[in-house]
Amino acid sequence: MTSNRWRTVDIVVASILAVAFGVVFWAWGLLWYGPGDALFAAFPPAKAVIYGVWLLPAVLAPLILRKIGAGFYTEFVAAVVSALLGTGWGIAVLWYGLAQGAAGELGFALGGYKRWGLPQALLASAFAGAAAAGLDLYYYYADWAADWKLIYVVIVMASSVAIAGVGGHFLTRALAGTGALDRFPSGRSRDLV
Hints:
Layout: H1 8-33, H2 35-39, H3 56-65, H4 70-85, H5 92-109, H6 118-139, H7 146-178, H8 185-188
């Protein structure tokens, strides 16, 4: 069982992850609007294949830190950083950070914050993807046909599962293998399968 008490190192690492991903989020927004619009002009829902990057902190931070609230904190602070850098969505990204962080957190909460392997990462990433897609459909794509909406949700969730779920799991394993996570339960356990 993991302690729910946050140590200074937990706060520092979560904050570093959040700031780093906030910069990534900002840059990813430039890709989404510029080349993404041009590349997927024929079928805009397909642009969601690159979506999972925005959901990675909601899964990666809990996998590394194994603390209640790690996904919520990291995803939200990353959204704040991207908003401060001037994202194309303005402060609306704060709602996304809250929703995606809470949804990712739910995936780990359903495991009682005791399961940290690939199945839990996949569940957390699927929830985060569903939350993100739901907000997008409400705010930006309400006028799309029902089939486009469904395809979009499926692609966002698949991207989230592939990038945030599978990617977050294997990134955590790789970092643990280097010894970089030795101060965390994720670096000392063998339950990352």
